[in-house]
C-alpha cells in the first residue's frame, strides 16, 4: 500500500521585491517541496518564476511554478506580500485602505478555498492588515499571523552584537509592539550570553553611557527601513530571511519564539488588536503567546503601540 506523504507547499502572493527574494531564499533552504507564486501582474510573475527555475540545478529539489487561487487549497503556508506602493499625492490612509482591500480579498479567497494551513501577512501596515486578514478569513487567531517585528528584532540583535563585539547568535533581544514608528526594544528581556544586558555592560565595557547608547541603537532600528528605502527603493533581503525563519518554524514544527504579529485576546491587558509579542510558532501557527513580565515603562510603550494600531483599524471603512 502506498503511503500518502504530505508535500510542504508554500504559496506566495505578490511577486515583487519581497515575494521574489523570499522565494529565492526558500528555494535554497530546502524547506519546501513546492513553491507557488501568484501575482496580478502576469508578466512579472512569469518572469520571476522563469528566473528562479533556472537556479534549480543549484537548489535542493523543489517544484517552482506560477499558480492560481486554486493552489490555496492544499497549501501549508500562504505568504501574502501583495500590495500597492504609495503613489504621489496619495495619503497614508488611502494607501492603508487600498492594501486592506487587497489583503482582505486574498484572505477571503484563501479561506473560501478551504486551505487548512497558516496565513502569514507581510504587506504593510502589517499589524493592521493581519487584523483585516483575520476578520475577513474568519479563521481562528492562531492561523493568521503577521511577520511583525521579526525583522526589527533581527536588526536590534545585529546592532547589539556589533556594539558588544559578540556573535549575533549569542544576543537575545526583542522589538515589540507595532512594526512601525511606535515599536520599542524590550530591554528587560535582552541578554547577551545569558546575562541581562545591564549586567553585561561592565563586561563589555565599550561605552561610557549605556542609556544613551541603547537609545541610539533603538533609534537606528526604528529608522532602518527609511534609510534603506531612501538608498535603494525597497527593503527585501533581511525581510526575506525573516520570513524564511518564520517558515522554518512552521514547516518543521520548531516551536521557535518569534516576535510575530498576533491577535491579542486579553494578553497584556489588550484585546482585538494585532501586534508583536514573543510567541511560540509551530505548524499550526501560534502555539502560545508568551506573556513576558514587561517592566512598567515597556507596558506603557506596548499600550501606546496598541493605541496607534487601533486608531488605524478604526479608520478603515467597515
Ligand atoms: N513586514 C515587513 O517586515 C516588511 C518588510 C518589507 C516590506 N514589507 C511590505 O511588503 C509589501 C511588498 O513589498 P515589495 O517591495 O515586494 O512591493 P512590490 O511593489 O515590489 O510588490 C508587490 C506586488 O504585489 C502585487 N499585487 C498587488 N495587488 C495584488 C493582488 N490583488 N493580487 C496579487 N498580487 C498583487 C503587485 O503586482 C506587485 O508585484 C509592501 O507592503 C511592503 O511595505 C513588509
Estimate the strand proportion.
15-25%
- The total count of helices amounts to 9
Number of strands: 16
Bound molecules: nicotinamide-adenine-dinucleotide
| C-alpha-based Rg, rounded | 20 Å
Low-pLDDT residue spans: none
Output the structural class. alpha/beta
Protein model, in words:
It is a single chain. Helix content is 44%, strand content 18%. It is of the alpha/beta class. The strands form five sheets. It has a six-stranded parallel β-sheet with strand order 3-2-1-4-5-6, sandwiched between helices. The radius of gyration is 20 Å and the shape is globular. The mean pLDDT is 95. Residues 13-19, 38-41, 44, 81-85, 102, 122-124, 126, 147, 151, 179, 234-235, 239 line the site of nicotinamide-adenine-dinucleotide (NAD).
Q: What features would you highlight for this structure?
A:
318 residues, alpha/beta, six-stranded parallel sheet, three-stranded antiparallel sheet, 9 helices, 16 strands, binds nicotinamide-adenine-dinucleotide
What's this entry about, in short?
By secondary structure, the protein is an alpha/beta fold.
